[in-house]
Structure formats: C-alpha cells, structure tokens
Write a structure and sequence with these properties.
This protein has about 180 residues and is mostly beta strands. It contains no helices and twelve strands.
C-alpha cells in the first residue's frame, strides 16, 4: 500500500479536536469518526511533491457537545525509525503545512495548529497517528482561545490508486486544555 494510502492525522484528526457549547478553561476530551482523503489539498510547504491530506471528522466532546472538525496534515515520509515493529512507512508531521478548524453547532470556530506528530503505516493498510498542537484562537466564544491538545487516531484505507491517493475511515480521540 502506498504511503499516502494511509496518511491520516490528524486530526484528525488529525483528526479531531474539540469544542462546542460554553467555553470554560479546563480539560477537554473528544471522540469522533469520519473520513480522510490523502493528497486532498494543494498544500505542499516542504516542496516534496506530496500534498497535505484532508480529514473531516464529526463527534462529540464529553464536556462541550457535538462538533465537526476539518484538518489538513502534511507529512514527510521515510523509513520507520520511531514507529513500532510492523510499520512499513513513517510520516513526520510538517507543521507549516498542517492546521485544523473545529466548528461548534452555533457556527463558532476554534483554530488549532499541530506542532508535532507521527504517522505509522502498517503493511495491512492501517495508519496509527499521534500528534500534539496548540489552540490559536477562533471566532465567537473562541476568539481568544489558547491551550494545547493531543490526538490519537487510527485510519483504515478503503480505496487507493498507484499515485498514492487514498480514501478511508478514521476514528480519533483528543485530549487537551482550553484556556481563555
């Protein structure tokens, strides 16, 4: 399977950070699921010819309620060095090409910047992603939000082509602290 066939992050997730409802300083947890598209953007800040992945995740925060998240994550890929045995390709997050925005039900947005992360891709087509980052403000009640977060995500490729484009499902969790 190609490198991008499993690229995920964030995220999530990179997938998938947090926030909906009234903003209060303190810990935040998030669980969500959604989809990813590798090389789904035109962002390539490191000039390696591989563009950033796009993740779209819906979920809920135990503290704040329902939310949606869109994340772009750019990866620099190489042989495994820090990933567990069974990893065939390892991606290191390119912070300059990565960002996330979380939308609350009322339309308020929370912005985040992933600062580090690893994407461990197995021979079976599963990507295990871990990332960390900071909140960088937003709109409405998140206008001056700060804090930090971590993301853990697992992505499974459903379809891929030889050029490294892939589509699949992602499940993510995030924990962090939201300051205001």
């Amino acid at each position: 399977m190609s490198r991008t066939g499993l690229a995920l992050i964030l995220a999530i997730g990179l997938v998938a950070t947090v926030v909906v409802g009234d903003v209060e300083a303190g810990p935040i947890q998030f669980r969500g699921s959604g989809s990813f598209l590798t090389q789904g953007t035109s962002i390539d800040t490191n000039g390696d010819g591989v563009t950033a992945d796009l993740f779209i995740v819906s979920g809920s925060s135990s503290q704040l309620g329902a939310l949606t998240n869109q994340t772009v994550a750019e990866w620099a890929f190489g042989p495994p060095s820090t990933c567990p045995p069974g990893t065939v390709l390892e991606g290191t997050l390119v912070p300059a090409g990565s960002a996330l925005v979380t939308r609350a039900v009322n339309g308020d947005l929370l912005f985040g910047a992933p600062t580090s992360g690893t994407n461990c891709i197995s021979a079976t087509g599963v990507a295990s992603i871990s990332a960390a980052g900071v909140y960088t403000g937003g709109t409405g009640r998140f206008a001056n939000a700060t804090g930090d977060f971590t993301i853990a995500a697992t992505a499974t490729t459903l379809a891929a082509d030889p050029a490294g484009h892939a589509f699949g499902g992602v499940v993510a969790t995030s924990e962090g602290t939201l300051d205001k």
